[in-house]
Every structure is written in structure tokens, then in C-alpha cells.
Design brief:
single chain; 411 residues; alpha/beta; Spore Coat Polysaccharide Biosynthesis Protein SpsA, Chain A; 2 domains; 7-stranded mixed beta sheet; 11% strand; binds guanosine-5'-diphosphate-alpha-D-mannose; binds manganese (II) ion
Length: 411
């Protein structure tokens, strides 16, 4: 028997945003068990939905024939996306459609979809074809191989963004760095915590109340769920061909709000967080070697008995050579395991550029903390400087670990 005999719309769950351990009883009569439920949140995606449902159905029919459902959750789009989706239900029996009129928002749409889902694996994909459907097969395979959560990532091998402006890239990265500082145990676990394309085993999020603000549902799943093993699959974020993005400055504010709320309300954030102490020690030693390089070059360039160049110019050159020295050692030693996998020169150059930028920001942090501590906390410049150096070192280590060499929780 196929799933939906009629083309009635799904009723919208109300109350808390909690996902039950077992699919909702009123639906079990349909088919006792289903493997995979994929939510497609939509708002004004009339132009995309037909093609997306077609492609997804063909693909899933091949991988897990009739063992899946597609759930479109539309927020009463003015272009009547829900109606278009509904009209496809006769042709695609595994398609179900929800039209929400009381609530709005991407994350809550996804959760409402999961609440009526029957699958033991719950997924989400954008409704605008920016997430390449082929990746689904790989994500499903990762789950089969034991992952609790499989995330499509733009930031690992095979991943990328097609034509993002420098501004959007910068904002996206800035948001990630902020999260790495506030919630290291959550954002540090994956290379692309902003991904809106992933799947998770139901049992990992069953029973917990998800309470996201804004767009970033994945953060919520990692922070509140019970996720042990994570897998990542690279994908290229395609350009939108139809319709437009709903992201505005408001999503950035909501993101900050979300980070803050997760920080204040989750306790397990600290528990899962393990600091890579060995790497940190190596990083520290390399940093120390940089001090000597810096000193030696400064001497060679600026000392009256040697080249006697102006001090500032000498220091800039000495500093950059020290950074280069540190990079080489970190690449060959501290993060050798990661660097080994990406040896091409353009990968190295990219890492070096990132390392440079992070260390430059580290220098600013160093000066800032020194001033703050000296003026407001401990009026002793050497103690203040030690604290500033410690903070900057941790910054340099952590952000380079996550962005330049990208060490995540993933196998
Ligand atoms: N139901 C519902 N309600 N759907 C929404 C809403 C809403 O309020 N807002 C957006 N959507 C749907 C869109 O119709 C689209 O299918 C999907 O959510 C993503 O929205 P976009 O506006 O296209 O977002 P984006 O392309 O800028 O960003 C996406 O990709 C990022 C990178 O992977 C989102 O998936 C982000 O969450 C993701 O981080
Ligand atoms: Mn989009």
C-alpha cells in the first residue's frame, strides 16, 4: 500500500517543539515503519518545488524504494507553494504537505515536520535546489555506516560555495568564529555548523525539546541532542535559479540570540567538550620558537652593529618571518595529520593565508586585552601582558585548529 491515499494536507502539530521517540500513533496505521523522512521547508518556492520533488523522488526511489517520505512544510506562502505541492501528491504518493498559518520561521518549520514524520532517520533540505540532491545518497550511506548525524558541509573536501560575495563569506565565517568562542563544544564538532542540509537518527533527538531561534537548526540538534558519531559529506552550495533568499540582517541578530540562549540553557555543552591538549602544547612550543626567530631577525635587521634598518620596518619583517616559521612547524608537526591530507601547494597557501589572518587578529586581541586588564583589573603591566598573551595564544590555537586546519569531531 502506498502512503497517502488522498491529497489532504497534514494537520499542524501544536504545543512544545518536542520530537517523540516513536512516530505519532495516529499515523502508524498507515505503515508501521519507514526509514527516512525528509523535510523540505518552503517559503515562496513555487518555482522550485516541482522540480525538487521530482528529483528527490527519483533519487530516493532508487536508493530506498518506497521507504521514505518527503514532507513539505510551507508557511502559507503568498505564492501558494503549498498548493502546488499538494497538487503533486497524486503523482508522488510519498509526498506529504503541511500548510502552517499560525507559526512562521525556518527552524520551527523543520521541527513541525519532524513531529509528524514516520521515519527513524530525520532529514532536512532547502526547497530552492541550492542543496544538490545527489548528496542525499552519501548522507544516507554515512548513517547506515553508523553515524548518528550526517551533515552536508561546504568546508571539507568536495565542498564549496559557487558565487558568494566576499561580504557574505566574511559574515558566514565571522558568525562561525563567534560561535567557536561562545560554544566551542557545539560549533567545534563540525566543519560547517551553519549547514541547513543534514540528517539525524530520531533516537538522538527524541524526547528533548528543541527550541531554536532563526535559521540554524543544526546547532540546536548538536547542542541538545544526544549525538555521538558525526559524519560529513562535502557539497557545493549552488546558486539560486528561481525565487530569492529570505536571509536578511535579522537572521544575524537571531543567530546571536540563539548562541546566547544555547550557552545559557545547555549544560552538556561543556561535557562533550574535550580540549586537544597535546596539540595545544605543540602549538605553544612552535609559538616559542617563533619568539627566537623574531628576535634573531630583529637583531640582524635593526641592530646598529648589523644592518641598522628602522625599527618598525625591521619588526614587521621579523614578525612576518616568525609567522612563516610557525606556520611551517605547525603544518609539519602540530597539525601534520590534517596537512598530510591536503598537500597541494594551493591548499598550503590557503592555510598560510588563514593562519596569517588569524594571527593578525590575535595581535589585536593581545593589545586589547593588555589595555583592558592593565586599566581596569590588574595595574601591573607584566601580569597584564602575560594574561593578554595567554588569551591571544588560546585564540590563535583554537581558531586555527577549527578554520585553518579544520580539526573537527568527525572521523
Ligand atoms: N517554512 C519556512 N518558513 N521555510 C522557510 C522560511 C520560513 O520562514 N524561511 C526560509 N525558508 C525556506 C526557504 O524557502 C528555503 O527552502 C530554505 O528555507 C532556505 O532559505 P533561504 O532563504 O534560501 O536560505 P539561504 O539559501 O540563504 O541559506 C540556506 O543555506 C545555508 C547554508 O547551507 C539555509 O539552509 C541556511 O540555513 C543554511 O545555513
Ligand atoms: Mn537558499
Amino acid at each position: 500500500m502506498r502512503n497517502s491515499p488522498s491529497n489532504t494536507l497534514l494537520s499542524v502539530p501544536s504545543g512544545g517543539l518536542q520530537i517523540s521517540e516513536f512516530p505519532p500513533p495516529q499515523l502508524i496505521t498507515d505503515k508501521t515503519k519507514i526509514y527516512f523522512s525528509l523535510i523540505i521547508p518552503t517559503y515562496k518556492e513555487r518555482e522550485n518545488i516541482v522540480r525538487l520533488v521530482k528529483v528527490l523522488s527519483e533519487l530516493l526511489e532508487e536508493v530506498i524504494p518506497d521507504d521514505y517520505e518527503l514532507i513539505v512544510v510551507d508557511d502559507d506562502s503568498p505564492d501558494r507553494t503549498w498548493e502546488v505541492a499538494q497538487s503533486m501528491m497524486a503523482e508522488y504518493p510519498n509526498l506529504r504537505v503541511m500548510r502552517r498559518q499560525q507559526e512562521r520561521g525556518l527552524s520551527s518549520a523543520v521541527i513541525r515536520g519532524w513531529q509528524v514524520a514516520r521515519g527513524s532517520v530525520l532529514g532536512v533540505i532547502d526547497g530552492d535546489l541550492q542543496h544538490p540532491p545527489e548528496v542525499l545518497a552519501q548522507l544516507l550511506r554515512s548513517i547506515e555506516q553508523g553515524a548518528d548525524l550526517a551533515v552536508a558541509s561546504r568546508h571539507i573536501d568536495g565542498g564549496g560555495v559557487s558565487r558568494w560575495s566576499a561580504v557574505r563569506r566574511f559574515l558566514s565565517r565571522g558568525a562561525q568564529v563567534l560561535g567557536l568562542i561562545f560554544l566551542p563544544g557545539v560549533l567545534g564538532r563540525v566543519s560547517d555548523p551553519m549547514s541547513g542540509y543534514f540528517m539525524v537518527r530520531r533516537r538522538c533527538i527524541a524526547g528533548v525539546t528543541l527550541n531554536p531561534v532563526g535559521y540554524k537548526i543544526l546547532l540546536e540538534v548538536i547542542a541538545r541532542g544526544n549525538v555521538a558519531e558525526i559524519a560529513e559529506v562535502g557539497y557545493v552550495f549552488c546558486e539560486r535559479k528561481q525565487g530569492e533568499s529570505k536571509v536578511t540582517w535579522k537572521q544575524y541578530v537571531e543567530y546571536l540570540h540563539h548562541l546566547l540562549r544555547l550557552r545559557l540553557t545547555t549544560t552538556q555543552v561543556g561535557q562533550k567538550f574535550s580540549f586537544p591538549i597535546g596539540r595545544f602544547l605543540r602549538f605553544g612550543l612552535v609559538g616559542l620558537s617563533g619568539v627566537f626567530v623574531d628576535m634573531a631577525i630583529l637583531y640582524l635587521l635593526s641592530d646598529p652593529s648589523t644592518l641598522a634598518l628602522p625599527l618598525t620596518r625591521s619588526k614587521i619583517i621579523a614578525g612576518e618571518i616568525a609567522i612563516f616559521n610557525n606556520f611551517l612547524w605547525n603544518d609539519a608537526w602540530t597539525f601534520a595529520d590534517v596537512a598530510m591530507q591536503q598537500q597541494e601547494w594551493h591548499h598550503r597557501a590557503k592555510r598560510f593565508l588563514k593562519f596569517n589572518l588569524v594571527c593578525l587578529a590575535g595581535l589585536l586581541i593581545n593589545v586589547l586585552v593588555l589595555n583592558l586588564v592593565f586599566n581596569f583589573v590588574i595595574p601591573n603591566r607584566y601580569i597584564a601582558n602575560l594574561i593578554a598573551i595567554a588569551v591571544a595564544t588560546i585564540w590563535n590555537f583554537w581558531v586555527n585548529l577549527k578554520l585553518s586546519w579544520r580539526v573537527t569531531d568527525v572521523k
